[in-house]
Amino acid sequence: MADGAEYAAPRSGAPVSYDIPSSGTTVDGALLIGLIGAFVLIGGAIMLGDSIRSFLDFPSVLIVLLGTFAVTMVSFSVGEVLGVVPLLLRTVFPPSRNVQRACERALNLAEIARRNGILALDHVLPQLAGEPFLQRAIAMAVDGGAPERVETVLTTEIEATSERLTRAANVLRRAAEVAPAMGLIGTLIGLVQMLANLKDPNAIGPAMAVALLTTFYGAVMAYMVFAPVAAKVDRNAADERQIQQIYMVAASSIARQENPRQLEVLLNTVLPPSQRLDYYS
User: Fold this and answer.
1) Does residue 236 contact residue 97 with C-beta atoms inside 8 Å?
2) What backbone phi and psi angles, to 5 degrees, belong to 25?
3) I need a labelling partner for 54 at 20 to 30 A (CA). Which of 5, 94, 155, 172 fits?
């Protein structure tokens, strides 16, 4: 127990909840609205033209999509490239990441440990199944791990998680670099085929349109999908790191059996003034 620490009761009218719900998942509305809106704008511009069919070419799609996948895989492993697929789903449907809610959850756990003893948290662990990192952190504190050991292990896990997400974002950024190049390659292939048929002037126009489609597909995939989603993955990784650091601080404080008031002061340093916790008078 921290030296000289005295029990601080929750301020009147704001009892600390003993129910520790999981964060759950949500839908990234900004990502969906942005992607759908951009494709709707392009689709609308195409539909205002004379022919929608002129923008459809299956060989061009194969060159851009499969070519981008193959060239990107040269820079990474197969597992890293394929691992981006579940990450995309997690990006669209991410876990709820609210810093204030995370601080409240951490303070609630500290209050339970302060009132009923650290072993009381053992009964709360099943409620933390939706937060695996927090569950492991609290389990280490409950098992009597030294605070320094808890911080070392959790810091290592935080760094490993951040590295995995950064690597996935790098895969998407690499795909964003490769897609326009594959589009250009497809265009050059189409131009060569077009020049081979110069004896037929009527075929030059349609052949040129098909040749340019691969560049169009490559630009759309790179600048409307891969690059923006990579930036979103980076942002989500930063949010995940902050939440995990909050949980690490809480687990370390609980392991030290510190007064929850000290934890509240520390957690308030990461919150904006309008969202700071005020559980103790």
Assistant:
1) yes
2) -115, 165
3) 172
**Quick one: average pLDDT of 158-176?**
94
CB of 91 within 8 A of CB of 236? Answer: yes
Residue 280, strand partner residues: 10
Give the HSE-up count for residue 263: Cα atoms under 13 Å, Cβ half-sphere: 32
The Cα 106–Cα 114 span in angstroms is 12
Cβ count near 271 (within 10 Å): 15
Token pair for 81: 């490239």
Identity of residue 158: I
Distance CA 47, CA 42 (A): 9
Give the contacts of 277 (CB within 8 A, at least 6 positions apart): 100, 103, 104, 107, 264, 267, 268, 271
Rounded CA Rg of the chain: 27
pLDDT value for 76: 92
Beta-carbon count within 10 A of 248 CB: 21
Q: How far apart are CA 210 and CA 139, in angstroms?
A: 60
**DSSP label of 155:** H
If we measure between CA atoms, which residue out of 217, 224, 231, 227 comes closest to residue 38?
224
- More confident of the two residues 277 and 203: 277
pTM for the whole structure: 0.81
At residue 127, what is the residue type? Q
